[in-house]
Amino acid sequence: MSGAWASDALKGRVAVVTGAGSGIGRSIAEALAGAGADLLLADLAEAGAAETAAGIARGDIRVEAAACDVRDPEASAALFARAVERLGRIDAAISSAGIGGPAALAHEITPAQWEAVIATNLTGSFLFAAAAARAMVPRGGGSITLVTSQVSEVAQRNCAAYVASKGGAKMLVKAMALDLAPFGVRVNALAPGFTDTPMTRGGDPGHAESRRQSLAHIPMGRMGRPEEVADAAVFLASDASAYVTGTTVFVDGGYLTV
Ligand SMILES: NC(=O)c1ccc[n+]([C@@H]2O[C@H](COP(=O)([O-])OP(=O)(O)OC[C@H]3O[C@@H](n4cnc5c(N)ncnc54)[C@H](O)[C@@H]3O)[C@@H](O)[C@H]2O)c1
Known about the structure:
Blueprint: E1 14-18, H1 23-34, E2 38-43, H2 46-56, E3 63-67, H3 75-87, E4 92-95, H4 111-136, E5 142-147, H5 160-180, E6 185-192, H6 198-201, H7 205-217, H8 226-237, E7 248-251
Parallel strand pairs: 1-2, 1-4, 2-3, 4-5, 5-6, 6-7
This protein binds nicotinamide-adenine-dinucleotide.
């Protein structure tokens, strides 16, 4: 569990996290809990979200789990309605839900493969963030964070659908930050570099090659840990980032410096 933040940094705040059943999303949930937030944790795999919730449950915070498919236009709205109903308010919304793309040259990606990646990583991000904004605008503020990727900034071989989805999400963040600033709602991207999670542990030979290339390119010489990404998520959810909107926070071991 992460411990970089004071245990009351988010005391009394309510955060909703999707993709909370695994990897970076699970670590973000743990870090938010460590900072004292009450949580509604969601995932396509409800059992994963429930396992995360069970792992962090303790007496002084409220933690609930729910199913949520970010591709479903109604699902995120239901999630925020539940957060307000059960936990009383909504302060922060973080989406870590995402899937990797096919390991294929750009011109060999099928339309179905393309659609699948865009549906989760880009359309799902929009649906989640828009539902969060509709819940936050009436109460005059909030923080929305979309987990994007270092590939929102630089391309990677054999990864065009994923790269395009994350680049799109980066610009979605900027556009939403502009629209929502007058309402006190901040919108940011959190871009992990190459991070040790189930997503990067599995994979076919194409992904193994892209893993090898990524590692060779990281100035700090190692993969990131999901807890290191999570600490930046607490920053973006908290008042420590009160003047931060429309930007991307990279947690990438220096990947983008060279
Ligand atoms: N691991 C990395 O190196 C890395 C690097 C950059 C960006 N990212 C991004 O970080 C995020 C988390 O990735 P991770 O490495 O923790 O992967 P992961 O596979 O461990 O976790 C992703 C989670 O998202 C959930 N999910 C997938 N589709 C969903 C949907 N339609 N609705 C709701 N939940 C859904 C999965 O069930 C899973 O629990 C993703 O957006 C990923 O693109 C990861």
